[in-house]
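=== RUN LOG ===
request id: a7f3
mode: sequence -> structure
chains: 1
length: 287
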Amino acid sequence: MSAEQALARLERQVLGVARVSRFLDAVDLLRRMLAAESPEIRARVLALVAPAIGRDLAAAVGAAWNIGVLDAEKVIGGGRVKGIPGAPPKALIAAARASEKAIAAELAKARKLARAGADVATVLAPVFNASNVLQRDVTTLVNHAGNKGTAAVADAAGLPTVWVAETNACVECLAYSGRISKPGKPFPGGLTYGAKSYHPDPVDVPPRHPRCRCTIEPLVSSEYADALRREADRSVLRGFSLESERMSVRIDAADRLLARGVVAPKSVKAYAARAIKAGEFGTRGRP
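=== RESULT ===
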């Protein structure tokens, strides 16, 4: 993957967050004020404006679609691909609008509590709920829109797509990395390095779950897909993961992979065997 393509993927993932940064900054300020027990807190809550946040999230979805289209066209080469819709599916825009309403409702609740003189912790609870909804849905909706744009280009060009997972993705997403989907067809359901998949249904494009960071690309080289699968195996054997995934899940995944006779460097397999015996990977969070 070129530096330009990597940058486009990163931009797609963080675009929505950047557009709503004013709200996230306000939440961070409220957290600091809470720690200081500042009397200004109710005034700050009352100053939050939800509609602007909502408009930005919907706009981010549309922008992510466009970036996904451009990213895929660069991978394929040859300029613009004909037959691409000019906007993301209506369902994605509707999901963004639903998220906007949920955020606005939580902030309205906070303002009402503030006016009624509720204590600080009670006032802040719906504010933090709004922040959590926003951050989750930005990651999920923006990534989905970008991948939908990429898939539209690949389908129009008659090319398959390949799933690309982050090095420290969960055991389900890593199982998809390097997997190929034919034009217009979904990826299979139920893939995982773990004992059980919690997502048995086929999926057209990532995200596989909320906050999923996976992407897809038009497949122009089968060697690239093979390399992604090898890297996913190595990630499992090295225990690269986020704190949100239980260590026991990573240990079990590595144990299962070794038992299947995975082809990997001897040093990597030896490291995994030692970690399994110890019940812990020392490389968590260090891809």
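=== NOTES ===
DSSP finds ten helices and three strands in the chain.
The chain has two domains: 3-159, 163-278.
=== END ===
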